[in-house]
Amino acid sequence: AIQLETRVTIEGRKEEEGQDGNNELVVEVESVQFPGTEAVVLGLRDLEAKARESLERVRLHLSSRGAPKWSSYVLGTLSSFCRYLGRFPTESIRVVVDSDVPHGQGVSSSASVEVAVVRALRDYFEVEEEESLDLARLAQRAENEVVGAPCGIMDQVACLFGTHGAVLPINCASVSLSDLVYLPDDIVLVGFPTRVQHDLAGEYTPYERARTATAMAAKIAQTCPNSPEIRSLSDIGCLSLSKFEACVKPLLPKTLSGSAFLAKYEGVGEIDALSRVKPDEEYPVLDAMEFAVQASLFAGIALSLLESNAFSEKAVQDKALAQVGELMLLQHQSYNKIGLGHVLTDSIIDLLMSFGPGNGIYGARSSGGGSGGTICILCNEAALPIIENIAKEYKIELIL
Fold first, then answer.
1. Distances in whole angstroms, Cα of residue 124 to Cα of each of 26, 113, 332
2. Closest Cα partner for 51 from 120, 139, 132, 146?
3. From CA 215, how far away is CA 271, in angstroms rounded?
4. ∠ at Cα 69 (67, 74), nearest 5°?
5. What would the DSSP string read from start to end of 82-107?
6. What is the pLDDT of residues 368-383, one digit of tens each?
7. How many helices and strands in the chain, by DSSP H and E?
8. Cβ count within 10 A of residue 202
9. 191: burial class by Cβ within 10 Å (0-12, 13-18, 19+)?
């Protein structure tokens, strides 16, 4: 089993001589993570000019220069941070990215790069700013506006503040944190990569489809006179399951085509600027919103179970952990309902749970954007040999 880390270094380098004989400032980005890829070299002043206008201009600039997608995470974060700081490098720089985090496996590989770039820039500019949620927002903006991935802020926050051996409670609606909840000494969360890659920045990904379905459901829910005001996706987390069942669920069809939705509503831009309703797509609006409502409730219950049983005797702890595991399994099933499941993920989880809590495997679920990626497993350390044997069958190295 391995622990993962992303490392970024930024150093000044000798200026290039331009065609007019003057020294030209450049930014060179190199990835050790992807051997064989060529370094990306761009004019630093051109990038600065675009960044000072908007991050959208940076996205268009990188696209026009044929910059590979992996470099957008770095250059987008550089642009986002420097806009925030109001300063750009006054010398040519070389940025080197090295990471153990597997790409496209649902373990925040992109966010880990963005956060590492933010930290390296903070050191480069000698900015005495502690880890903050503002830094997470800068990294998220880079991924949303430059890379084009409609992700939330959870991954960036987890990379900044996550601690090994503890659960980090994140309220994504208010973008706030609660105190860490440490797991019992013999309990671990294990990442089981499926090697089925997913891409949140593709043409129209399952994740984007599910997110858009949630925004569509929220738009429909606004027509319910008895439901709480829902102005954004964040407000869904404040909707109780009982209120959803009584007021909102009866309004939602199981599925709805984009064309039928657009014929009645003007879109979902005011609910979520990153969602796009496509007329020829069919959206699981009911299951998508039910998943979002349940996710908030289940997370709160799981947190309470972990906190209240932290110092209980082992039999009581095991019962609480089994209940947390059951909540994980229910969320995994909801992933399948909204199109974020995968047959390989299901087969691995079925195999893991055939051993069950009696053998120290309490629960498992898809993580991140689903559609493969990495399975998150809650288990006792005594169950690691079982999980490692299953991983060997799939020729996979676990993540602890």
1. 16, 16, 42
2. 146
3. 6
4. 85
5. HHHHT---SS-EEEEEEE-SPTTSSS
6. 766 677 899 999 999 9
7. 13, 15
8. 12
9. buried
